[in-house]
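re: that chain from earlier
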Amino acid sequence: MYCYCKEAQNVWDEIEDEDHRTASAARPRPQASTVLNLSARKRLFFSATLRWSRPDFDFDLRTAVRAGVISDYTILVPFMTAGDPKPSLVQLIQDLPTARRILAFCNTVQEAKQFAKLLNAEGVQAGHYNGCTASLQRTRILEDFKKGPSRGGLRVLATVDVLSEGVDLPMADTCLFVEPRKGLRLRQCVGRVLRQHQQKVDALVVSPPIIQEADGGLQVDGELVRLLAELAGADPELRKSLAENSFGRVCLVDQRMNRSGDSPAVALEEAATLLCTKVYPRALSSYLTADDRWQLGLAQLTQYQQEHGHCKVPWKHRTGSEFALGTWVGYQRSARKANKLTAQQVKQLDTLGFQWDLRAASWEEKF
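^ sequence. v structure.
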């Protein structure tokens, strides 16, 4: 959550929640004109996705978890075959008994209705909720969701956008994206399941999937990258985990249907490699600290050394994730000459057999 204040000269205070677009007084945006024209001595604005201003105070997601304000979470990345993802997601829900209250976010009302219908046909208690749902029916649906399946209520609530903000459902423990979201509220959707509840240990976020095409090729939707990027932007621990290619907070699960006879272990390993080499770097590109970037470079160089048996990376070489490894390697030599590398960094590179003086190495190879 971001928080920022605006001083004014008049007589009363004002607090604005969900304030994502209000800009500075110097350059107010049209959307902010109504708010900024109100008389106030001091304004306090809250936003989980601040877009136009720098915050005065940033209470990030990891700080909130450690303070016990919200629940911790795990990201589950489904690995699916191409086609309609709904049957695979139904099977996934059936395989996750600990996911007791699931908010399933869809792209359209029709899609949400279809998903709820499919779940009910497979014995999973599900309901549908949208902006046109009648008031009395909304109340009944939410009460059924709060009761849960153990008391004759709902386990899954399929929706589009109406439940992404401004609703308190702390018993919801799983956020599931039925198909890649095209809107701007991924973080808000996840936030619905992070609220504390006595029956909740950790929340679960089921991300957009990695897809295996009919020819065996793998595809990643940009919404998976965007989801990881938004969460990494709010959670320093997740940023560090992704930079280290760790699966500590991210789990990959094989939900493919109609497999073509390939080895599940090999296919899953290929999907994991895709996550580490293409998805993580793209998700982290805006948030890496200098140390994060160095560790990412070291990881890429380690992989190169394992594949080629040396660290003599061509200057223009880029990895499969478009990381400019050749440039990074060249910079390490310059950085050491300028005493910009720590002793630990030098030691880590030496362990890989890093050649600091290419001319000397070339001379030794020839003679």
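The CA atoms of residues 297 and 328 lie 7 Å apart.
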